[in-house]
């Protein structure tokens, strides 16, 4: 974990960023980064590759919308996962892989946190 340079923003239940459960705590998605409030700054976190959130080729079932391409401006938030980025779609991690999206498992979006 490294410290993020963003010290002016304090993540909390009312900051407007998506909160997700990460182990025994809550982190906040901001511009493709997963921030954990840590005193006066934010630590950078990454979702681990594990049995719940694998990084294997497992095409989505049902498949992603063929008229939608995940990318920086697709409207879905980027989530750091292992050594890559996934996209958060309805509580699941979608990973672009060739001509399909892989299912990299669920994440728990925390409401009101």
UniProtKB/TrEMBL annotation:
Q: Where is the composition biased (Basic residues)?
A: 1-14
Q: Where are the residues of the annotated region Disordered?
A: 1-46
User: Residue spans with biased composition (Basic and acidic residues)?
Assistant: 21-38
**Protein name from the UniProt record:** Threonine dehydratase
**Species the sequence originates in:** Microbulbifer elongatus
């Amino acid at each position: 974990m490294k410290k993020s340079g963003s010290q002016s923003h304090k993540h909390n239940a009312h900051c407007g960023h998506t909160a997700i459960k990460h182990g025994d705590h809550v982190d906040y998605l901001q511009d493709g980064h997963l921030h954990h409030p840590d005193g006066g700054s934010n630590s950078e976190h990454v979702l681990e590759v594990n049995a719940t959130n694998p990084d294997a080729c497992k095409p989505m079932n049902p498949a992603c919308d063929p008229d939608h391409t995940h990318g920086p401006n697709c409207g879905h938030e980027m989530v750091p996962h292992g050594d890559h980025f996934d996209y958060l779609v309805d509580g699941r991690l979608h990973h672009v892989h060739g001509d399909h999206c892989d299912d990299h498992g669920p994440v728990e979006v925390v409401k009101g946190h």
